[in-house]
Each structure stands twice: as C-alpha cells, then as structure tokens.
C-alpha cells in the first residue's frame, strides 16, 4: 500500500532549468549573465560601481495566456514575504503587456486579500517589460524580459532575488503561483560583482511524495484501523487478548510512520523559510502531540479494578478519537496543498477510507444485534427466575 501511495503522491517530473544564458537581450547588452536553477529563467546584468546602480534583465516564460511572470528583490532574506516585485502580465483593458510594482506582504501570502499594485519603497530608477521576438500577444511559452535599473547600497553587492510565474490574473491582481518544488525553490542570493550565487536549499524530489504517503498511511489509515480493532474486535470472545496486541501493534506502527512523515515535513519547512502552511502545520503538530499523549497513557494505565480506570478510559477514548479525526482532516488538507484535489491518489485514499468506514458500519450493526440479543436473553432469564421464585413462594403457602 505504501508503494501505491508513493506512486499516487509523486508529482510529475520538473522542467529542466535553462542551460545557457545570454548577455544580449532585446533592448540592450549586459556584462554578465546567469542561468537560474528553475523555471527556464535567466538573469543578465551590468553593475556600475561608481554610482552603485544595477542594470538588469530577467528572462522568464509565461505558462498560460492569462498568466503572469514576476521578478523581485527582498532586502532582508531570499523569501517571498517582503519581496519588492515587478510583475508582467496582459493588460485586461488593452490586451498589451503591462509591468506593475507589487509588495508581497504576509497578508498576500496567507491569501487574506488580493495582491494590489503599489509603489515600491526601494530606489527603482526605471523598469520595463518586452516580449521577446516582438510577439503581438501573450501565449503559453512566450518569453518575456523584465528590465530594471536599481540603486544599490554602496559597497553592498549581494542581492536576494526571487522569481516566479502564475496561471491567472484577476483584473490587475495576480493570483497564487503553483506549488511544485521548482516554484517553491525560485529564489537565490547572488553577488553582482563576483557572480557567486547561493541558491536556497532545495527539497529532494522524493521528500514531498514520501511525506504525503507516510502521513496518509499512518495518521489517515493505520490509526483509524487501530481504533476499529479496539472498538469491535474485542467484542468477539474467541479473539481473547489478541485484539489488544493487534490494536497496540497497529497504533505503534502508525505512530512511528507518522513521526517519520512529520520529520520530513519539518525538514521541508526548514528548506522553504518563505513558505508556510499555517493550518496544515498546526493540525500536524496537534496530531503528533495527541499521539504522544496516547503513547504515554499506556505507561500509566491503571489495572482493571483500579478506581481511576474509568477516568483513564474516558481520557484514552477522547484523545484517541480526536487524534484520528484531526489526522484524517490533515491528510485531505495536505492533498489540497500538493494539488491532488482531483487525483488518483485522493481517489485511492477515499476508497480505502470508505472501505474502512463500511467495515465499521457492518461491525456496528453486528454489535447492536449482539447487544439486543443478549439484552433479550437476560430479560428472559430474569423473567424466568422471577416466575420460578414466585412458584416456590406460592407452593410454600
């Protein structure tokens, strides 16, 4: 099952980065250039040390006719939040190419409001955008050049630059970009004098599918299966204590795999400091804490005859069910983040979860049938005993 989940969660292969860069652009030539590590993008520039100005040209490609291409600087760190960006897209009024300035603040990253153009608070001396080969309109695969002249701080030649592209623009508000590994790794720090570059640490290609597969298998399936074992299998007298060992084994396996998936998620977050999924991260932490509390509860389990046993059982049931519900919800949340909303991976997980739910319904019905049968037998037994006692008392008189 883990192999199937890995197959379902594995994203499509990434497009290879541009192998060559050119100092010659549509408008002018530059002294230096660099191929960027993602999105077939490149950067050419000329640095003027006498006045600390930087002339540059970023080259990127559109991924849809209604999309956008952006390049920007971040004055503090190579991450999206805080970037002063120049974004090129098709003007909804005229249909021509337009280049507007934007400041990417935290509210934009959390999608609390649309991205609205506003003047940059950095010394941008000039900017323009042009389609390469003088194409009349934007199309998928069209190459755009973003030219800019920026005033840098004297004797500070290292810059944090970010680039990206998206599918849609609503009016004059670019929408969120895709979340593939290449899109999240489109940031770097370069020295415009020495041409040395520090690329942001990238996440291994196997990390995201492994993270999704482990968490779907552990929190999303094994832990609910362990709950089913504890609730229903224990009712079969022929099972004896086997149900307890099966329950503990399944839950322990699920928790260990879940911790491994959680650790991979932490590593992915550390490698992407500008990318934060607040809800997904919060649910993940809550599930891990709840699972740890369940594990610790086994160490303090009172005996069956202890007076605190009923309180321990209430705690164990409440935390266990809460952990299962949060885990399943977070699996679906993770699928949305990975763009698997309509994928075979989500379909396969839903089929597995539905099958488990169907087993629960069948066992619940069986449990009620057994309960009603035992209640009826007990009632008949009491009535029979009462009648026998009545006859004895009547004969004694």
Number of domains: 2
**Structural class estimated from helices and strands:** alpha+beta
Helix content estimate: 40-55%
- How does CATH name the architecture of the largest domain? Sandwich
Radius of gyration: 31 Å
Strands, total number: 13
Strand order of the largest sheet: 6-5-4-9-12-13
- The shape, in one word, is elongated
Uncertain runs: 11-19
Average pLDDT, all residues? 82
> Strand count, sense and closure of the main sheet?
6 strands, antiparallel
Q: Helix tally?
A: 8
Strand portion, in percent? 15-25%
- CATH fold field value of the largest domain: Immunoglobulin-like
Order of helix and strand elements from N to C terminus:
HEEEEEEHEEEEEHEEHHHHH
Cα distance, first to last residue?
74 Å
CATH class category of the largest domain: Mainly Beta
Keywords: Electron transport, Iron, Membrane, Metal-binding, Signal, Transmembrane, Transmembrane helix, Transport
GO molecular function, one term: metal ion binding
GO cellular component, one term: membrane
Protein name: Cytochrome b561 and DOMON domain-containing protein
Outline the structure in words.
The chain is α+β, with helices and mostly antiparallel strands. The chain folds into 2 domains: 185 residues, Immunoglobulin-like; 179 residues, Four Helix Bundle (Hemerythrin (Met), subunit A). 44% of the residues lie in helices and 20% in strands. It is built from 8 helices and 13 strands. It has a 6-stranded antiparallel beta sheet, with no helix packed on it. Strand 5 and strand 6 form a beta hairpin. The longest helix is centred in the C-terminal third of the chain and has 53 residues. It is elongated. The chain starts with a helix and ends with a helix.
């Amino acid at each position: 099952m883990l192999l199937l989940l890995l197959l379902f969660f594995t994203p499509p292969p990434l497009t290879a980065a541009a192998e060559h860069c050119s100092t010659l652009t549509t408008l002018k030539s530059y002294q230096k250039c660099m191929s960027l590590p993602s999105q077939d993008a490149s950067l050419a520039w000329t640095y003027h040390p006498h006045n600390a100005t930087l002339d540059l040209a970023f080259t990127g490609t559109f991924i849809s006719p209604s999309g956008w291409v952006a390049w920007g600087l971040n004055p503090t760190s190579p991450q999206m939040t805080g970037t002063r960006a120049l974004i090129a897209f098709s003007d909804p009024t005229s249909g021509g190419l337009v280049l507007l300035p934007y400041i990417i603040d935290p509210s934009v990253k959390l999608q609390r409001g649309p991205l609205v153009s506003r003047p940059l608070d950095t010394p941008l001396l000039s900017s323009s955008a042009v389609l390469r080969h003088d194409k009349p309109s934007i199309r998928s695969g069209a190459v755009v050049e973003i030219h800019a002249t920026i005033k840098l701080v004297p004797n500070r030649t290292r810059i944090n630059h970010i680039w990206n592209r998206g599918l849609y623009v609503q009016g004059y508000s670019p929408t969120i970009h895709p979340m593939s590994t290449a899109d999240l790794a489109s940031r770097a720090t370069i020295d415009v004098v020495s041409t040395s570059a520090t690329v942001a640490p990238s996440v291994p290609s196997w990390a995201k599918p492994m993270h999704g597969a482990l968490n779907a298998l552990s929190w999303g399936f094994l832990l609910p299966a362990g709950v089913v074992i504890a609730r229903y299998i224990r009712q079969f007298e022929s099972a004896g204590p086997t149900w307890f060992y099966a329950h503990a084994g399944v839950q322990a396996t699920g928790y260990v795999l879940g911790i491994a998936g959680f650790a991979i998620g932490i590593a992915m977050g550390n490698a992407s400091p500008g990318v934060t999924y607040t809800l997904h991260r919060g649910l993940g932490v809550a599930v891990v804490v709840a699972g740890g509390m369940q594990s610790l509860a086994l160490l303090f389990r009172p005996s069956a005859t202890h007076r605190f046993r009923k309180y321990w059982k209430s705690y164990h049931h409440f935390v266990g069910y809460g952990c299962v519900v949060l885990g399943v919800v977070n699996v679906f949340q993770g699928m949305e983040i990975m763009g698997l909303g309509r994928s075979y991976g989500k379909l396969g997980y839903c089929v597995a979860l539905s099958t488990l739910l169907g087993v629960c319904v069948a066992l619940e019905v069986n449990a009620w049938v057994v309960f009603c049968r035992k209640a009826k037998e007990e009632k008949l037994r009491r009535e029979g005993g009462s009648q026998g006692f009545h006859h004895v008392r009547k004969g004694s008189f």
